[in-house]
Design a protein that fits this description.
The complex is a heterodimer of chains A (310) and B (389). Chain A is an alpha/beta fold and 310 residues long. Chain A has a single domain, classed as Alpha-Beta Barrel (TIM Barrel). Helices cover 37% and strands 15% of the residues of chain A. Chain A is globular, with a radius of gyration of 19 Å. In chain B, the strands form two sheets. Chain B has an eight-stranded parallel sheet. A three-stranded mixed sheet of chain B has the order 3-4-6. In chain B, α4 runs parallel beside α12. The chains are: A alpha/beta (310), B alpha/beta (389). Chains A and B meet through α1, β2, α9, β7 and α10 of A and β3, β4, β6 and α8 of B. Chain B: This is Cobalamin-independent methionine synthase MetE C-terminal/archaeal domain-containing protein. Chain B: GO terms for molecular function: 5-methyltetrahydropteroyltriglutamate-homocysteine S-methyltransferase activity; zinc ion binding.
């Protein structure tokens, strides 16, 4: 089934409570992990039949934080608003002038963060999510684009050598900030480089913002497909000129509303999309990070996506 | 509503809740340490009723509804006395009666249902509600609370209430967006219209009647808290409209403050000028972005840069001089210099009120008290420097 749930899925109410209890030293690490495992298994169950499953990244704090563990001398500093939401990320700040990935830690790091601590095997069909350059830059300090590129390149190379994977590169900055020509070139060069590592499909996922003024840039990038928030972008504008053969990850259910979309309305939406491109190239998804929703609402939206895509 | 006295001091809202205030509501037993703290602070703040509190707490657990209400009352009494003892002019109880600034009002509104927890950051989550029908007031939000505080307080009180924009921005919407179709040609316009209607309804149906009720009950200082004001850069005009609709015909009848913090203030200009004659005080956070060095030159007071934008408005400047996320106790001399710098930029000491950056609820009472005492001392030093009595 062509449904993709990249990034962090919301923790269950039980896991939220267990995490709070753990922080207040009311339960042990083992008790917390048991709840987390139960939650991850439940989420795994919900994705039965998906071409690529997601671990839900239920132990992550945000998309950048895992990188603090493998970048040499990296500090986690103050809070910064996550775009225009009421969620905050912590800013990474390497203390070294030449921050780089400590590759000796990489295997254990990949297993912990991308294979849910060994719940999934390296050859499981999974969707992985990584930040793109501009996102990383926005939520870090004292680190140059060249160094960010090196860090993300090292990680992407390792992730893309694993079989049966889809890589979603997350970038809400497109449509939010005016990118310089240099930034565009850096992004393009990075994507071109990682595309040589394997046949792993790579999707560049935007979110939250109107990207119609950036389509010329986006559609010439060397990626397998694009993720578009259709609560910020009209179908007609996005799909006129959509490059042949590329995948489209459709942000079809909203992450800023708990209103569960009606199945008929979503069918109409997908019909309008598949009028332009072949159904096999379309993946249904959330319009932004699913974890902005409470778990119950995210589950209900996922159910309706499954109903529509089955 | 004009006030003439320069450098009036006020708290911004929340303070930490004592263990003895929180535990009875979490079904946790009161400890010896909790009782000792109640006794110590009672002595420090000259609270005559302390023996009654100590006796009440000595029950330890299994408090009745009435006893819990009495404990909350004591917590408000202690919070107000702490501020009065520190020398603050306009006081509040540190929001001892409230859960926090979002859940407290939304629970008392109709048209909302709590949907579950969402992440604020790291492992910190908050309960987020969704608007499921036209918002209204299911019960009184703050008037009873105000009456209780006014009865306790010896100084004037200032009532903080969460503003319409923040309530809307921190909630989900199921009511106004239900007709949206993803990818529709007019998706932007429809979303904007839905958002505006949501804001208008919260402003007119919940915030305006609350402010009106407080005004009619005799509250002279009303503070609208809008930490979310600049969250969405394209919505500043909608935020301004929501303030106008929240205050309505009450403008000029009582003293209105707006409090915004940890935001990109540049986005507020020039739109904020539309609120001249409606708002009296604009209170922002500054100390958080300032240096800790004494001095009155721009290179030392770079955290106060936005004052240059406020200078040519008619607003009283609510000057945050205490960093609320650190235990660093600002020396009176540093506070003095922040005030003097602001007085120099604004050009009129009568247009400056002095306060912490935001609520001090993340600090202990000891740190809060020391910070507030130094703030008052800093005000006195600044007055002396300017020859103001």
């Amino acid at each position: 089934m062509n449904i993709l749930i990249p990034g962090q899925y919301p923790r269950s109410e039980k896991l939220v409570a267990a995490t709070r209890d753990f922080d207040r030293r009311r339960i042990t690490d083992e008790e917390l992990e048991a709840v987390r495992k139960e939650d991850a298994e439940d989420f795994m169950q919900k994705q039965t039949g998906f071409a690529y499953m997601s671990t839900g990244n239920l132990a992550w704090q945000d998309h950048l934080r895992p990188y603090a563990d493998i970048i040499t001398g990296c500090k986690v500093t103050g809070l910064k608003r996550f775009f225009e939401t009421n969620t905050f990320w912590k800013v990474l700040e390497p203390s070294s002038e030449t921050p780089a990935v400590d590759e000796s830690k990489l295997d254990e790091w990949v297993e912990r963060y991308f294979l849910a601590g060994g719940m999934y095997t390296p050859d499981s069909a999974l969707v992985f999510t990584m930040p793109f350059l501009y996102l990383f830059k926005r939520y870090s300090r004292n680190i140059e684009y060249a160094q960010i590129t090196e860090i993300l390149d090292t990680v992407a190379r390792r992730l893309m050598t694993l079989p049966e994977k889809m890589l979603v590169i997350f970038e809400p900055s497109v449509g939010f900030t005016e990118l310089t020509d240099e930034e565009r070139k850096l992004g393009r060069d990075f994507l071109a480089k990682i595309s040589t590592y394997s046949n792993t499909p790579v999707i560049l996922a935007t979110a939250f913002f109107d990207v119609t003024s950036e389509l010329e840039f986006l559609y010439t990038l060397p990626v397998s497909g694009f993720g578009i928030d259709f609560y910020a972008n009209p179908v007609e504008k996005i799909l006129q000129g959509f490059p042949m053969g590329k995948l489209l990850m459709t942000g079809a259910v909203a992450t800023d509303s708990t209103h569960v979309e009606e199945a008929d309305k979503l069918r109409d939406f997908f019909n309008s999309v598949t009028w332009h491109i072949d159904r096999s190239q379309v993946f249904a998804s959330f319009a932004g990070p699913a974890e902005l929703l409470p778990r119950e609402a995210a589950d209900a939206k996922l159910d309706v996506l499954k109903e529509v895509m089955s | 509503m004009k006030i003439q006295k320069p450098f009036i001091t006020h708290e911004v809202g929340s303070m930490a809740k004592p263990g003895w205030r929180v535990k009875p509501f979490r079904k946790l037993a009161i400890t010896d340490d909790d009782i000792q703290k109640a006794r110590d602070w009672g002595r420090r703040l000259d609270i005559e009723e302390t023996p009654e509190l100590v006796e009440l707490l000595s029950k330890r657990k299994g408090f009745t509804k009435e006893e819990k209400a009495r404990i909350k009352w004591f917590s408000s009494l202690y919070g107000i006395r702490l501020q009065e003892k520190a020398g603050i002019d306009l006081v509040w109880d540190g929001e001892q009666q409230r859960v926090e600034m979002y859940e407290h009002p939304v629970k008392r509104m109709s048209g909302f249902q709590f949907r579950g927890h969402v992440r604020s950051f790291d492992n910190k989550y908050y309960r987020k509600a969704s608007c499921v029908g036209k918002p209204g007031l299911a019960e009184d939000l703050h008037t009873q609370e105000y009456r209780q505080m006014a009865e306790i307080a010896r100084n004037d009180v200032k009532v903080p209430i969460t503003g319409a924009y923040t309530i809307v921005d921190w909630s989900f919407d199921e009511n106004y967006v239900k007709d949206l179709t993803p990818g529709a040609a007019d998706i932007h316009e429809r979303r904007k219209k839905a958002r505006s209607q949501f804001l208008t309804d919260v402003s007119r149906e919940t915030i305006y009647p609350t402010l009106k009720s407080l005004h009619e009950a005799g509250a002279h200082y009303l503070q609208i808290d809008e930490p979310a004001a600049t969250t969405k850069r394209d919505e500043i005009p909608e935020f301004i409209t929501s303030v106008k609709e929240s205050i309505g015909d009450l403008a000029g009848k009582t003293f209105f403050t707006i409090h915004i913090c940890f935001s990109n203030y540049k986005l507020l200009f020039p739109h904020l000028k539309e609120l001249e004659g409606i708002l009296d005080e604009v209170h922002l956070e500054y100390a958080n972005r300032d240096s800790q060095e004494s001095g009155t030159t721009p290179d030392k007071r770079f955290g106060y840069e936005i004052l240059h934008d406020l200078k040519d408005t008619s607003f009283i400047v609510g000057l945050g001089v205490l960093h609320i996320h650190t235990d660093f106790i600002e020396p009176p001399e540093l506070i003095r210099d922040r005030i003097l710098y602001a007085a120099d930029v604004i050009g009129d000491p009568g247009r400056i009120m002095v306060s912490p950056d935001c609520g001090l609820r993340t600090r202990t009472w000891g740190v809060t008290y020391d910070k507030l005492c130094n703030m008052v001392e800093g005000v006195n030093l600044a007055k002396r420097e300017l020859g103001i009595g």
